[in-house]
Amino acid sequence: MKINVHSLKGDIVDKINADEKIFKIEPNKSVIRQAVLAEMTNLRQGTHASKNRSAVRGGGKKPWNQKGRGVARAGTNRSPLWKGGGVVFGPEPHSYNHKLPKKMGKLARRSVLSEKLSKGEFRVLEKINIESSKTSDFIGILRVLKVENKKVTILVSSIEENLILASRNVRNVYVENVRNISVYDLLDAEVLITDKQGLNDLIEVLA
Length: 207
Hints:
By secondary structure, the chain is of the alpha/beta class.
């Protein structure tokens, strides 16, 4: 299949061959869901904790004698039954890491890209070369491409300083490495923009 290549002025200047196994498949909603859930789960730090009876302060001395007072036995005043005592079965630090099979991760990305391309939400530019680091010039490019009011994710092969400086203060514009883009970030964008080199890298990663 052919994908149109646009200039920074919005004109079609070329067509590039793209693998139909990546950009023209039936989206697998189930796999996309599993991939997004895995990514969001892996973002969790798992640092939550509580103090059990061995970690809480105090409680070294037996409060009273075992026998003779006519009350219940007590070995420490930091028992979970007492005020100020330790927590029973409280949260403990642990990893939330969830490993997704590589084939499922690739299928999820292919599914999202195929859907974006079919809806006209995936655009390929001849080259993303920003000569100026001025935000106003970058907004002018977005306006020419008619995406100034949309959530845009720009996929690049290498990070250029001018692009970062020009886009960092623009709301809803994100610059991501095309090789490390997540399924969630692909879904979250209203428009995906890359260049020829970025497209080649994307095809290489998902092939």
